[in-house]
Design goal:
The complex is a heterodimer.
Chain A: H1 19-26, H2 31-48, H3 50-53, H4 85-121, H5 123-137, H6 141-152, H7 156-182, H8 186-193, H9 198-234, H10 246-254, H11 263-290
Helix pairs in contact in A: 2-4, 2-11, 4-5, 4-7, 4-9, 4-11, 5-7, 6-7, 7-9, 8-9, 9-10, 9-11, 10-11
Chain B: H1 3-28, H2 36-41, H3 47-57, H4 63-75, H5 89-94, H6 97-123, H7 129-141, H8 146-160, H9 172-179, H10 181-207, H11 210-217, H12 222-244, H13 246-259, H14 265-274, H15 278-306
The chains are: A mainly alpha, B mainly alpha.
């Protein structure tokens, strides 16, 4: 569950000859962006290299080593079935990050296409699409997501479908708003008078100038998707066990919170917080870097 | 345009959205893979029970006719028969609405109580250490799973310190305030980052405005300047952000009610999912949709009360 924080609408700027090199030169001077990228890079490498970083199996139970405390062998101890918590955390990150990064692509693409069509053509197409947006927005994100996963049946495929059906509206709103402003610019009028087709104008001229806002929002949307995946996992509606997932790890560990095994619940949650922090830093850094007029 | 005309026009604009909401809820049953009746009944599926459900929900009729039947029942206040409770789904849902409303209002109040001082601390000393600290709050807060925050709060403040109950709704006004503090705080912590960001940004805008310089030069005391001029003008964008996030606020109750065992419609929804009580899940989804639409309407109308510049003929 993440609150909605839309990027501020900005006037689409015409690409200039010098804009690109300046951006390339400056990205590492953005402390937020640079630290976010480094942090996310470390997380992604740790998740991808999980089999190299830990000798334990994330699924295989070891009933002779249940609920062990943190030690040199088990950095974060073991869970109630003797599985190494650090191993499951790395593999859980792997699962959740993979699903979140794939899940964000569908709403991004669909929302961008529909938002472009609504913004560029206007008229009844815009009216119909925006009423559709109003209807989806009328449902609280989690209510619709949980309801959809329930009717589709738990699992990865249902998560992709549910996130797409719920998530496209934000991108459509952002891109539509940006295109409404950008289509009045001189370069669009020039392209039109040059006889370019609408699809070419949208694809070649408008989208490259307005996609930044959707991209910046995408960063916070991935955070929202990770939180959604973890929440569904917590309620047993996400990735089915025994596949490691941070949400189900938090759920499994919460019964042991009053005892000495607080790490079982605390660390999977902290892992989500660090991932969220890295993506938020990247989003903020990108906004500063790419928004015209921002220092 | 008068206030009444504005309200009526705004209500009329809700009609297509409300119809759309009912269509989405109606189509939920058709997203179920295979025969919905068989899937919903699960191990209890017998040919007789499947046939009864088919007849009850009109699954053997054309889609338009099914929707018409659904709407006909809905307009008569009939949300169907709960498969688990054996009574009207509407009755089951409506008796659980008060705890959810309590949680929503309490969370919004706590979110404001947390956000206003923090945003003020940050905005009044832009780029100072305290500003950077407050600006870091949303970065960390946005990535915190609310149910995890809830679990940690229960552990720290209910199990260790024993200042609040672990779960429940409480009895009487003060009982509710006490019992619902941790759940409301959990939702507020999730909501506060966005409100702090918006409030800080709008306070900075207001602080840079010429009328503030004028007020300062006229010798208006700082406390009066802040309360009468800065806060009042800065709070409007923050209310807008709160309005945009109403769906989030209401949706958050689904998760938090389950962590704290609050007998609201959020807990009912998750319980009904595990009991495969489809009519109740469908009904709760509809009620949540209608709730968001109505709260958005209230938010729109409240802008005018907060900001005299807002006219009804916008």
């Amino acid at each position: 569950m993440s609150a909605i924080s839309f990027p501020e609408p900005a006037l689409a700027a015409e690409p200039t000859e010098h804009a690109q090199p300046r951006r390339v030169r400056r990205w590492y001077r953005q402390p937020a962006l640079a630290s976010g990228l480094v942090l996310l890079g470390i997380i992604l490498i740790a998740a991808a290299a999980a089999p190299l970083l830990t000798p334990y199996d994330p699924i295989k139970e070891n009933l002779s080593a249940t609920l062990l405390g943190p030690s040199a062998h088990h950095w974060l101890g073991t869970d109630q079935t003797g599985r190494d918590t650090f191993t499951r955390l790395l593999y859980g990150l792997r699962t959740d990050l993979r699903i979140a990064f794939i899940a964000v692509l569908f709403p991004f693409c669909i929302g961008t296409i529909l938002g472009s069509i609504a913004g560029y053509y206007g008229g009844w197409v815009d009216t119909v699409l925006m009423r559709l947006v109003d209807i989806v927005v009328a449902f609280p994100f989690y209510v619709l997501l949980i309801a959809l996963v329930f009717v589709l049946g738990p699992g990865e495929r249902s998560i992709y479908i549910a996130i797409t059906l719920v998530g496209w509206v934000s991108y459509a709103r952002i891109i539509r708003g940006e295109i409404l402003v950008a289509k009045r610019q001189d370069y669009v009028a020039a392209a039109r008078s040059g006889g370019l087709s609408s699809i070419r104008i949208i694809g070649k001229h408008l989208l490259p100038n307005v996609i930044t806002q959707a991209f910046i929002y995408g960063m916070s949307d991935i955070v929202q998707d990770i939180l959604a995946i973890v929440t569904l996992g917590y309620f047993g509606l996400g990735v089915p066990p025994p596949t490691p997932d941070l949400g189900s790890m938090i759920n499994d560990g919460q019964n042991f919170l009053p005892t000495a095994h607080w790490q079982l619940t605390t660390f999977p949650g902290l892992a989500v917080v660090v991932v969220g922090l890295s993506l938020s830093l990247i989003g903020d850094g990108l906004a500063d870097l790419l928004r015209p007029g921002h220092s | 345009m008068g206030r009444m005309t504005f309200v009526i026009q705004r209500l009329l604009m809700l009609v297509p959205v409300a119809v759309g909401v009912t269509i989405v809820v109606f189509f939920m049953i058709h997203l179920i893979p295979g025969d919905p009746a068989r899937t919903i009944l699960g191990i209890h599926a017998t040919p007789q029970r499947i046939a009864i459900l088919h007849k009850q929900w009109g699954l053997d009729r054309p889609l338009v006719s099914q929707y018409w039947l659904f709407m006909d029942r809905l307009l008569h206040g009939n949300l169907g028969q709960s498969l688990y409770y054996g009574t009207s789904a509407g009755a089951v849902i409506f008796e659980r609405i008060p705890p959810t409303l309590w949680l929503i209002v309490y969370s919004a109040v706590l979110a404001v109580i947390i956000s206003v001082p923090l945003a003020t601390i940050a905005a009044t000393r832009k780029d100072a250490v305290r500003d950077h600290v407050v600006r870091a709050v949303p970065l960390i807060g946005l990535g915190m799973p609310p149910f995890w925050v809830g679990i940690l709060l229960v552990y720290a403040l209910a199990i260790k310190v024993r200042a609040f109950p672990v779960s429940g709704y409480g009895t009487g006004f003060l009982g509710h305030v006490h019992a619902m503090f941790l759940p409301a705080l959990t939702v507020a912590i999730a909501l506060a980052p966005v409100v702090i960001r918006a409030l800080r940004a709008s306070m900075l805008n207001v602080l840079g405005a010429e009328y503030i310089t004028t007020a300062r030069s006229k010798g208006v005391p700082p406390s009066r300047l802040f309360l009468r001029h800065v806060l009042r003008n800065a709070v409007i964008p923050a209310v807008t952000v709160l309005g945009i996030n109403i769906g989030f606020l209401i949706g958050g109750t689904v998760i938090i009610e389950n962590i704290f065992a609050i007998p609201g419609i959020g807990q009912l929804m998750i319980n009904s999912i595990f009991q495969r009580d489809f009519p109740v899940v469908q009904g709760v989804t509809l009620v949540f949709g209608v709730l968001v639409v109505l709260v958005n309407l209230l938010a729109d109308l409240s802008y005018a009360a907060l900001d005299p510049r807002v006219r009804f003929d916008r």
